[in-house]
Write a structure and sequence with these properties.
Blueprint: H1 22-31, H2 33-48, E1 54-55, H3 59-69, H4 73-85, H5 91-97, E2 99-100, H6 103-108, H7 110-115, H8 138-161, H9 171-181, H10 186-201, H11 213-217, H12 224-228, H13 231-238, H14 256-261
Antiparallel strand pairs: 1-2
């Protein structure tokens, strides 16, 4: 069996004038030596953590970090919050998922991975799922992270489009996304959703039916990804009377491919 490749480093750069930087100046002014000690002990912990991620959704990992930095929960949380404000760590990952990620540190140790001929660990994806994986295999965790990435990006994009917003990502949504990914890339799904929003919100288009995310991705409601994949084709399908179309409100008469095939001859 091949020996697992570690995704940690044994050292990180510590500039002799580090304490003169903005981050440490503000940390020390607010928290004294606790601020200085916390920051560098945190960097040590990040450096030695697999993929340089500290997942504090796990209460034990949070307690271990507090023990290592010799502060209590309230003071540790306050320091982390200040580090977010200073953009020393990733604010979104901490506030949404209690994950500590320091992009500047990862950038500073990139040469280590270059010498190993391996890619530098990438920023994890923020997720609304508060569960913690019990898998010990880094490759399994990476696969789960990428899968969650697919779900979260599509879910967030859908809500940002303001068609029908959903409070949380459900199992039905994940299954619908998985089914759609069998035939289309994530980029194609996202493009189809954006085009659908243009049509459903446009006064110049007769189509105004608002689906949920599951309905949009479900073949039971026709192949919507195909219908909305090409914006210009969708505009032709759904334009008001001046386009000469008499399609039933809510569903187009032709799919994208059918309309493309009809170019050069009169539409039915």
């Amino acid at each position: 069996m091949a020996r697992p490749q570690k995704q940690t480093v044994d050292y990180f750069p510590h500039d002799a004038k580090a304490s003169e930087g903005d981050t440490l100046t503000i940390l020390q002014s607010r928290f004294g030596n606790d601020g200085y000690a916390f920051w560098f002990k945190l960097l040590e912990k990040i450096s030695s953590s697999e993929n340089h991620i500290i997942d504090c959704r796990n209460p034990l990992k949070w307690q271990l970090l507090l023990a290592k930095t010799s502060v209590n929960d309230e003071r540790g949380t306050a320091i982390i919050d200040l580090l977010c404000e200073l953009e020393a760590i990733d604010a979104q990952l901490w506030r949404e998922s209690r994950i500590i990620w320091c992009q500047k540190l990862v950038d500073n140790i990139a040469d280590v991975y270059k010498n190993r001929n391996r890619p530098v660990p990438e920023r994890p994806i923020s997720t609304t799922d508060n569960s913690v994986s019990s898998a010990d295999n880094p490759q399994t965790k990476l696969k789960e992270t990428k899968l969650n990435n697919n779900y979260i990006l599509i879910f967030k994009l859908w809500n940002e489009l303001g068609i029908i917003s959903h409070k949380k990502l459900t199992g039905d949504m994940k299954r619908a996304i998985n089914n759609a990914r069998k035939d289309y890339s994530q980029e194609e799904i996202g493009q189809a959703m954006r085009n659908y929003a243009v049509i459903v919100k446009g006064a110049e288009y007769y189509f105004d039916h608002k689906w949920t995310l599951v309905e949009f991705l479900s073949r039971r409601h026709s192949n919507n990804i195909e219908r909305f994949l090409d914006l210009e084709v969708a505009k032709s399908n759904f334009r008001n009377k001046e386009a000469g179309r008499g399609a039933h409100r809510g569903y187009p008469e032709k799919t994208t491919q059918e309309l493309k095939d009809s170019i050069g001859r009169p539409l039915d």
